[in-house]
Amino acid sequence: MTKPIRTTWREVLRPLYQRPRELQVAALCYRGSGAGRRVLLITSRRTKRWILPKGWLIDGLDAPGSAAREAWEEAGVTPTGRTPRAVGSFEYMKRLRHGLEIPVETRVFRIKVGDLADRFPEAGERRRTWVDPDTAAGMVAEPGLREILRAL
C-alpha cells in the first residue's frame, strides 16, 4: 500500500508543488502625487475581490507592454506616454478554472493614468475605484501586494 502512495507523491504531487512559478504582470495605475496620489483598484471577475489589473504575458509584448494592455482591457486605462516602471513583485496561488492552484509571481508596473475610458473590453464585468495607497493596501488580499502599495 505504501508503494503506490510513494509513487503518486513522487510522480504526480511533488512535481505539481515544485514546478516553477508562472509569471503574470500587474498594472499599478495611479494619478496625482504626494498626499493626493490615488491608485485604481478593480474587482476580479469571479470573486469580486479588489485587485490590480493583471494577467499573463501577451505574445508580441514585453512585460511593461503587457501590463499596459491589461490596464486597458480590465480597467479602461490609457497610460501617459511614459514607459511603465517595475516597482516590485508578489507571489500568490492562482486557482485555475478547473480548481487546480498554481504558484504565480506577479511583477507590478507603475502606470500613470493619462485617460480613463467608460467603454473598454471588460467594462461590464468589473467595478473600479480610486483610493489612496494605504486604503488600497487594506482592500487587497495578497500580503506582498499590500507591501508594494504601502511603499508607494
Q: Strand content of the residues, in percent?
A: 35-45%
Q: What is the count of distinct domains?
A: 1
Task: Detail the poorly predicted runs.
Answer: none
Number of strands: 8
Helix percentage: 25-40%
CATH class: Alpha Beta
| Largest beta-sheet characterization | 8 strands, mixed
Number of helices: 4
Distance between the termini: 54 Å
Sum up the overall morphology in one term.
elongated
Radius of gyration, Cα only, in angstroms?
18 Å
| Structure class | alpha+beta
Average of pLDDT: 91
CATH architecture verdict: Alpha-Beta Complex
Give the name of the CATH superfamily.
Answer: Nucleoside Triphosphate Pyrophosphohydrolase
Written description of the protein model:
This protein is an alpha+beta fold and 152 residues long. The protein has one domain: Nucleoside Triphosphate Pyrophosphohydrolase, CATH 3.90.79.10. Helix content is 30%, strand content 36%. The chain is built from 4 helices and 8 strands. Strands 1, 2, 3, 4, 5, 6, 7 and 8 form an 8-stranded mixed sheet that branches. A hairpin with a 5-residue loop joins strand 6 and strand 7. The longest helix is centred in the N-terminal third of the chain and has 17 residues. The chain is elongated and about 60 Å long. 24% of the residues are buried.
